[in-house]
């Protein structure tokens, strides 16, 4: 394994994950809290070894692979999709600190064979002029995961030339990937990775378990359909409370852009959905299309920025707040 941190050659043993893996130690990580309060989860080396072997097989990694990662080192995907993969496949790993201004340039320079594209990252960056120059023709696989996949995201990524773009489902409690599909948030039992079991509970939530795990995990993700063909609708705890119907932020952003907004961001704030946009969006049409969201606030702003992790919206000079 060769390691590069921000473009410079580094000793792989600077990463504690490398030492722990080589010594067969269990992996301990903290969950994001989407199924309740954040908690500590520990996976045995046996479980992680099963996960990594399957990810190598199903994602097509090999000794000449170049993995490009901006993943959070404290998240399960960093180990199961990057570090442990590089160790087992004996390939190159590029770790980068995310910078929205240089991200496309770094991808084009490294020419990786594999990268993970988070939905919130794509939702923000694909609207920028720089994004048009993104060249993914070097990629054997581009994986979108970590959150609900926006409509049209997979097809848009395919336009940049990778061999394959897939949508992945996974979790901290049941290390990713669990399922890999070429459709957006739609799966079947045939998309399940080897050594992984899934079933649908009587509450219509997806349940998962690696063969090396002793207990089933209830994802709390609501699904429609059966195991031969089902669609993930979203996590119960992420849905608006009380009378607030779930709205997928990416859907609202796309709708706003379709009706004139230069850039749009939709974020849940308590029991409200806040849609921020720049430009001359047709608010009437957008509001009609999002009428299923009882508490929708549409705010026009001069400028939209986000922090480096694309998590916090930084608002500037609000011009109008629509009546709720």
Structure description:
The protein is of the alpha/beta class and 324 residues long. Helix content is 23%, strand content 33%. The chain contains 8 helices and 19 strands. Helix 2 packs across helix 3 (76-89). The protein is globular and about 60 Å long. The N and C termini lie far apart (55 Å).
Question: What is this structure's SSE topology?
Answer:
Blueprint: E1 2-5, E2 8-10, H1 16-22, E3 27-30, E4 40-43, H2 45-59, E5 66-69, H3 76-89, E6 92-95, H4 103-110, E7 114-117, H5 119-125, E8 141-144, H6 153-158, E9 165-169, E10 179-181, E11 186-187, E12 196-200, E13 205-210, E14 217-226, E15 229-235, H7 249-258, E16 261-269, E17 272-279, H8 283-289, E18 296-306, E19 313-321
Parallel strand pairs: 1-6, 5-6, 5-7, 7-8, 8-9, 17-18
Antiparallel strand pairs: 1-2, 3-4, 9-10, 11-15, 12-13, 13-14, 14-15, 16-17, 18-19
Helix pairs in contact: 2-3
């Amino acid at each position: 394994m060769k390691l590069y941190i921000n473009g410079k050659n580094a000793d792989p043993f600077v990463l504690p994950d490398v030492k722990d893996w080589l010594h067969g130690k269990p992996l301990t990580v903290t969950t994001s809290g989407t199924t309740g309060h954040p908690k500590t989860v520990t996976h045995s080396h046996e479980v992680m070894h099963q996960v990594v072997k399957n990810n190598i097989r199903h994602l097509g990694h090999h000794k000449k692979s170049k993995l490009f990662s901006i993943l959070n080192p404290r998240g399960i995907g960093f180990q199961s999709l990057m570090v442990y993969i590089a160790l087992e496949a004996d390939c190159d790993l590029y770790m980068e600190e995310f910078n929205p201004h240089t991200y496309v340039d770094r991808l084009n320079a490294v020419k990786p064979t594999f990268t993970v594209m988070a939905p919130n990252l794509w939702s923000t960056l694909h609207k920028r002029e720089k994004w048009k120059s993104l060249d993914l023709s070097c990629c054997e696989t581009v994986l979108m995961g970590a959150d609900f996949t926006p409509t049209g995201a997979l097809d848009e990524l395919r336009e940049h030339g990778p061999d394959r773009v897939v949508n992945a489902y996974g979790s901290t409690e049941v290390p990713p990937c669990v399922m890999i599909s070429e459709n957006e948030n739609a799966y079947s039992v045939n998309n399940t990775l080897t050594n992984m079991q899934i079933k649908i509970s009587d509450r219509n939530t997806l349940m998962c378990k690696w063969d090396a795990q002793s207990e089933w995990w209830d994802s709390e993700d609501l699904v429609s359909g059966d195991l031969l063909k089902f669609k993930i609708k979203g996590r119960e705890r992420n849905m608006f409370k009380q009378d607030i119907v779930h709205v997928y932020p990416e859907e609202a952003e796309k709708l706003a852009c379709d009706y004139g907004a230069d850039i749009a961001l939709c974020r849940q704030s308590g029991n409200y959905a806040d849609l921020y946009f720049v430009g001359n969006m047709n608010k009437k049409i957008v509001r009609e299309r999002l009428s299923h969201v009882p508490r929708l606030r549409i705010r026009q702003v001069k400028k939209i920025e986000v922090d480096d992790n694309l998590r916090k919206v930084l608002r500037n000079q609000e011009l109008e707040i629509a009546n709720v």
